[in-house]
Specification:
Layout lengths: L1 H14 L4 E8 L6 H10 L12 H11 L1 E4 L2 E11 L3 E13 L2 E13 L4 E4 L4 H15 L3 H15 L3 E4 L2 E5 L4 H9 L6 E8 L6 H26 L8 H25 L4 H38 L5 H10 L3 H11 L8 H16 L1
Antiparallel strand pairs: 1-8, 1-9, 2-3, 3-4, 4-5, 5-6, 7-8
Helix pairs in contact: 1-6, 2-6, 3-4, 5-6, 7-8, 7-9, 8-9, 10-12, 11-12
């Protein structure tokens, strides 16, 4: 652990001399247990608790999504979740048959049932394909693949470093915030199936303009997403949820923080973006306050209407219930409770039935 942290410190001193760092990663055939990854993460000085254990049921779902049997280039077998409830997942293995040039039939050929409570196969299937799917699910439940390592470790580290995208697969991190990336790189050092590359960008080599344009584009895209979300609040008929408010305001804070960082580290002109952040945040707060006022007004009106409404009596409630009945239902009641000929007028019938019911209850 001391060696890893020392290596990170040495790299930081080198990074500090550059304009920024270019970061990219690649993986192929990655398979590492959560326990082994936690050891690496802890040795790099990071929080090992962020590497969670694999949920076996999630592994089954992934195995089903990814299962294919091929004959040449043609898919001849796939798996599909046929039914799922709180306790079980029913998986069908489907044979794909080419019935015509434009039609492929999917015929169930085997069934498997996963018990989510026992975390085991209740029905394991009878075919060799079922055995392959079970083996795939067992491997996915044991080992993290490259996508999982990326999502658990790489992406959060890049977010903490306030990175932005230069182009697909290539990211930029200002040297002032590069520490999380170097710690993450240290955690994965020596893992041949997953490599994180960090290259220094020096000033005066023509990088300033493309980095400035890329950082502004990413900030603008984030602002545009927020604008769409906030404008959507106008048509809502209820309050803006408190957790939504917190999330949006946190995103405003993040954009403002990143803009200030890019201005200082990369000499990016962000005054217009900072002005738009302030304007949009004020707009969001105005809409939130307006929705709160609308909700309070509706509550006040409803309470006033309830207070002004005449108190309902058992007699009034009984007549209201009778008025809601069909003619056939009223006729049946008259046959049981009435005396003499049934009134032809509906309101008179309701009143006569109500009086009969009240007399019976007295």
């Amino acid at each position: 652990m001391t060696q890893t942290l020392s290596s990170t410190t040495d790299k930081l001193s080198t990074v500090a001399s550059g304009l920024a760092s270019l970061v990219w990663w690649e993986f192929n055939g990655t398979a590492i247990t959560p326990a082994d990854l936690r050891i690496r993460v802890a040795a790099a000085g990071l929080d090992a608790a962020t590497v969670r254990d694999i949920d076996p049921t999630d592994a089954v779902r992934q195995a089903v999504r990814e299962f294919r049997r091929h004959e040449g280039k043609r898919v001849t077998m796939e798996a599909q979740v046929a039914y799922e409830d709180a306790n079980h997942i029913v998986v069908n293995l489907l044979t794909l048959t080419q019935q015509s040039r434009e039609r492929i039939a999917k015929l169930p050929t085997d069934e498997m049932v996963w018990d989510k409570v026992a975390q085991a196969w209740h029905t394991s299937g009878l075919t060799a394909d079922a055995a392959v799917l079970r083996a795939n699910a067992a491997e996915l439940a044991t080992y993290l693949d490259g996508n999982s390592v990326r999502d658990l470790l790489v992406v959060p580290s890049m977010a903490r470093a306030h990175s932005f995208t230069l182009r697909r697969g290539m990211h930029v991190v200002p040297h002032a915030t590069c520490a999380p990336v170097l710690e993450m790189q240290g955690a994965l050092a020596g893992l041949d199936t997953f490599r994180v590359q960090v290259a220094q960008v020096q000033a005066g080599q023509g990088w300033e303009t493309p980095l400035a344009e890329a950082s502004r584009t990413e900030l603008r895209n984030d602002l545009d997403e927020l604008r769409v979300q906030i404008e959507g609040w106008r048509d809502m008929a209820k309050r803006v949820r408190s957790d939504t408010q917190e999330h949006v305001l946190a995103r405003f804070s993040s954009i403002a923080q990143r803009a200030a960082l890019y201005r200082e580290a990369l000499a990016v002109a962000v005054e217009d973006i900072e002005a738009d952040v302030a304007e949009m945040q004020a707009l969001a707060e105005d809409i939130i306050a307006g929705k709160e006022a609308e909700a309070d007004s509706r509550t006040t009106t409803r309470k006033a209407e309830q207070a002004a409404a005449p108190a309902s009596t058992p007699q009034a409630a009984r007549r209201a219930a009778l008025r809601a009945m069909s003619a056939a239902q009223l006729g049946t009641l008259w046959g049981a409770l009435g005396d003499g000929e049934q009134p032809s007028d509906r309101e008179a019938l309701v009143e006569a039935l109500a009086s009969a019911m009240e007399a019976q209850a007295a």
